[in-house]
UniProtKB/TrEMBL annotation:
Residues 155-364 form the Glutamate/phenylalanine/leucine/valine/L-tryptophan dehydrogenase C-terminal domain. Coiled coil: none annotated. InterPro entries: Aminoacid_DH-like_N_sf (IPR046346), Glu/Leu/Phe/Val/Trp_DH (IPR006095), Glu/Leu/Phe/Val/Trp_DH_C (IPR006096), Glu/Leu/Phe/Val/Trp_DH_dimer (IPR006097), Glu/Phe/Leu/Val/Trp_DH_bac/arc (IPR016211), NAD(P)-bd_dom_sf (IPR036291). Belongs to the Glu/Leu/Phe/Val dehydrogenases family. Keywords: NAD, Oxidoreductase. This is Glu/Leu/Phe/Val dehydrogenase dimerization domain-containing protein. The keyword Oxidoreductase applies.
Length: 366
């Protein structure tokens, strides 16, 4: 029987301790002196198929911060694929550094590391990576998705991610407020990047009262001007009067500090790993009566999009159709959580992991 591993605190300095604590299969440390590339690829679980998940580039302060991020992100991908009914496993990569370090040689070297895994891991975009970067990676490996449409790929997955997040938010609103209309709701969006900026357009169209924040002031002003959303400073963001908080920047924004401050009724956003501690903060949200739409479910649109490309049958309309299912799945999870009095994230993980276990048995029986 495959066991869900949830231990979040691991023995400092022990690589095996870290990869076994969350049930990973493999952690690949990549280094190239010539280009300065430092990347880590995490393969969490391949029961449903080879791992698929994006690459994030970030100036991590330490190696252990990067390892923790790739371990948590790749585990989330296993659940995301499983709950979305996709036949792929969970994986993710992180590149340690500032995005200005990226150039053709740097990205092609990363592509060669991916190629060396022989298809066990396929990449795509995540934070600070774009379709152009995928093109360079594709010069060295075929195990890459998120390529531009003109190159036969599925293009930027972010609009599909935003669509799924929007539907997940509507499902949560239906449960919390009795109607899935977002008209008049005060919605605070953190992060107006590739996903956040698309999400805001859906919200504005529904006449929601949208508040936005971002650490990139120029981007923030541009999006606010285009959409009419009201800007808020990062410092006071968690204290503003809001019905729905939509985290669309980085993870762990649901933590001891913010859960003291947030007065919203719903949390529904695209960021990965929103709960600082899955167990502690999942329970705290339940206790506070804040309905949390599980991140790995409602942000699955991007994975759905790159999965279609991975299969070689890309069709954007079909990707949107598949992403529409997020609404019903989200409601089913919120109902399970209510019925069993368990945190919504736990309810979602149980459903996802049950699929991995069942399919694992099918595969073993041959
Ligand atoms: N792009 C996708 O299709 C996709 C799919 C699934 C999940 N996600 C997740 O959604 C989130 C956003 O992804 P993206 O592709 O839009 O990334 P992005 O880099 O385009 O945008 C992130 C934005 O957040 C801002 N930001 C970072 N830290 C912040 C902070 N502390 N406060 C306010 N703003 C901050 C950045 O300046 C940037 O504008 C990430 O967590 C990503 O993992 C993305």
């Amino acid at each position: 029987m495959l066991e869900i591993k949830t231990k979040e605190k691991v023995q400092e300095g022990s690589i095996y301790g870290q990869i076994t604590s969350l049930g990973h299969e493999q952690l690949v440390i990549c280094y190239d002196e010539a280009t300065g590339l430092k990347a880590i690829i995490g393969i969490h679980n391949t029961v449903l198929g080879p791992a698929l998940g994006g690459t994030r580039m970030w100036p991590y302060q330490s190696e252990s911060e990067a390892i923790t991020d790739v371990l948590r992100l790749s585990r989330g991908m296993t659940f995301k694929a499983a709950i979305s009914g996709l036949n792929i496993g969970g994986g993710k990569a992180v590149i340690i550094g500032h995005p200005r370090q990226k150039n053709e040689a740097f990205l092609r070297r990363f592509g060669r590391f991916i190629e060396s895994l022989g298809g066990r891991y396929t990449t795509a975009e995540d934070v600070n990576m774009n379709t152009r970067d995928m093109e360079y990676i594709a010069m060295e490996t075929s195990h890459v998705t998120g390529l531009p449409e003109v190159k036969g790929g599925g293009g930027d997955p972010s609009p599909v991610t935003a669509f799924g997040t929007y539907l997940g938010m509507k499902a949560a609103a239906k449960k919390a407020f009795g109607s899935d209309s977002l008209c008049g709701k005060k919605i605070a969006v953190q992060g107006v990047g590739q996903v956040g900026s698309h999400l805001i357009q859906y919200l504005v169209k529904e006449d929601a009262k949208v508040f936005v924040t971002d650490i990139d002031e120029e981007r923030l002003q541009k999006v606010a001007q285009k959409t009419g959303a009201k800007t808020v400073s990062s410092e006071g963001f968690y204290d503003i009067d809001m019905d729905i908080y939509a985290p669309c920047a980085l993870g762990a924004t649901l933590n001891d500090d913010t859960l003291e401050r947030l007065q919203c009724q719903v949390v529904a956003g695209a960021a990965n790993n929103q709960l600082d501690s899955e167990e502690k903060h999942g329970k705290l949200l339940l206790k506070k009566g804040i309905l949390y739409a599980p991140d790995f479910l409602i942000n699955a649109g991007g994975l759905i999009n790159v999965y279609a490309e991975y299969l070689g049958k890309y069709n954007r309309d079909l990707a949107y159709q598949q992403a529409e299912k997020i609404y019903d799945t989200c409601l089913a999870i919120l109902n399970k959580s209510e019925k069993e009095k368990i945190p919504t994230q736990q309810a979602a993980i149980e459903i996802a992991w049950n699929r991995v276990q069942q399919i694992g048995k099918v595969k073993l029986s041959h």
